[in-house]
């Protein structure tokens, strides 16, 4: 199964530079591997990220998303102290909501190109 996931930062704060997105991709690839899933494509901008994930049917999307957001938030806070000021009260990097859309067949290639074309901040 393929899913297009989009996570936005808490309060849509524009917190990510290229170095943050590079590390987020590494973290999310590792989390996907733990779920026997594959991060097919990853990209993002200063206030959100796009993921194209291929995962087995035994994995609930909500569990995968909770792990992706929780682990990445915790590790980013540990590794990038400069992000802490954006966490403010809640100590969370991500908004509580997310987008998840199932993908398959011909649109998969179209979606992959869309994610590749997302502009990275300088």
Q: What does this entry look like structurally?
A:
GO terms for molecular function: DNA binding; transposase activity. This protein is α+β, with helices and mostly antiparallel strands. The protein has one domain (2-116): Alpha-Beta Plaits (2-Layer Sandwich), CATH 3.30.70. The chain has four helices and four strands; from the N terminus they run E-H-E-E-H-H-E-H. The chain has helices at 18-34, 61-79, 84-87, 107-116; strands spanning 2-8, 38-45, 48-54, 99-103. A four-stranded antiparallel β-sheet has the order 2-3-1-4, with helices on both faces. Helix 1 (18-34) crosses helix 2. The longest helix is centred in the middle third of the chain and has 19 residues, at 61-79. The model has no long low-confidence stretch (mean pLDDT 90).
Q: How far from one another are the termini? A: 33 Å
Strand share of the residues?
A: 15-25%
Task: Output the CATH class name.
Answer: Alpha Beta
CATH architecture classification name: 2-Layer Sandwich
Helix/strand-derived class? alpha+beta
CATH topology: Alpha-Beta Plaits
What gyration radius follows from the Cα positions, in whole Å? 14 Å
List the helices and strands and how they pair.
Elements: E1 2-8, H1 18-34, E2 38-45, E3 48-54, H2 61-79, H3 84-87, E4 99-103, H4 107-116
Antiparallel strand pairs: 1-3, 1-4, 2-3
Helix pairs in contact: 1-2
TL;DR of this structure?
The protein is α+β, with helices and mostly antiparallel strands and 122 residues long. It is 41% helix and 22% strand. The mean pLDDT is 90.
């Amino acid at each position: 199964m393929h899913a297009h996931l989009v996570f936005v930062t808490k309060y849509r704060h524009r917190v990510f530079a290229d170095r943050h997105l590079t590390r987020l991709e590494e973290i999310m690839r590792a989390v996907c591997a733990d779920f026997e899933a594959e991060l097919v494509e990853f990209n993002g901008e200063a206030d959100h990220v796009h993921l194209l994930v291929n995962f087995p049917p035994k994995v609930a999307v909500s569990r995968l998303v909770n792990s992706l957001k929780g682990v990445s938030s915790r590790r980013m806070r540990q590794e990038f102290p400069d992000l802490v000021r954006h966490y403010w009260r809640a100590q969370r990097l991500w908004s509580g909501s997310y987008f998840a859309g199932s993908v398959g067949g011909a649109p998969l290639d179209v979606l992959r190109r869309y994610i590749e074309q997302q502009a990275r901040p300088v």
